[in-house]
Amino acid sequence: MDYIVELRRELDEFGALLEGDLSAPVEHCGDWTLAGLAGHMGAGNLWVVTAVREKRGDNYDEGVAPGDPAALRAWYAETADELVAALSVDPDTEAWTIAPPNTVGFWRRRRAQETLVHRWDAANALGRPAPLDAELAADGVAEVFDTMAWRMVARGAATDPEQAVRLTATDCGRSWTYGPGEPVAEVSGTAEDLLLTLWGRKPRETDALTWTGDRAAGLTVLAGPLVP
Hints:
- The chain is of the alpha+beta class.
- It is built from seven helices and four strands.
- It has helices spanning 3-17, 34-53, 69-87, 104-125, 134-154, 191-198, 215-223; strands at 164-169, 174-178, 183-189, 210-213.
- Strands 2-1-3-4 form a four-stranded mixed beta sheet.
- Helix 1 runs antiparallel to helix 3 (69-87), helix 2 (34-53) runs parallel beside helix 3 (69-87) and helix 4 (104-125) packs across helix 5 (134-154).
- It is globular.
């Protein structure tokens, strides 16, 4: 997957949504409005630029976002351009990261996934959610289990699962198993529905997902929390 291409597209789509009502509340992000989400995204972009170019991660500051709507849109666009420029180097280049590998390649993937989910948040806040790319969403499901979930355990925010559950994306034929041993349950749905469920954007108890096996045990495994 060309993460730079995916990231650029998602950054631009998020930026286009900032032409909407910036006072709109963002349902799954606490008390943020769309303006607050834009500040979060722009600050995160600049944070990663520093992580790559200066190999440090101590400069995250959402307070740098302008309050004026036009200035906020322009500032966000500048941060997006800076991020893509910083990541347009050899993906094996060393960088400060929040998890291994400590490379630019880590951030290419992480920011593509971060922007994908928050682009959905922004569109949802404006009442016009657009479909997620199935392959990128499937990679996002993989990232939850190969990076985010174990990080939540390492930080003490979650415990290791005692049983296993299998997830299957019906639209791209990919499967993942989370937890030890043979899966006690399997849940299937589109990659988008699986990703948004894992990130708490959609309920785990929904007709969009199909369960087999011990559903209650499977829901316990996925309760996590698996992501921040």
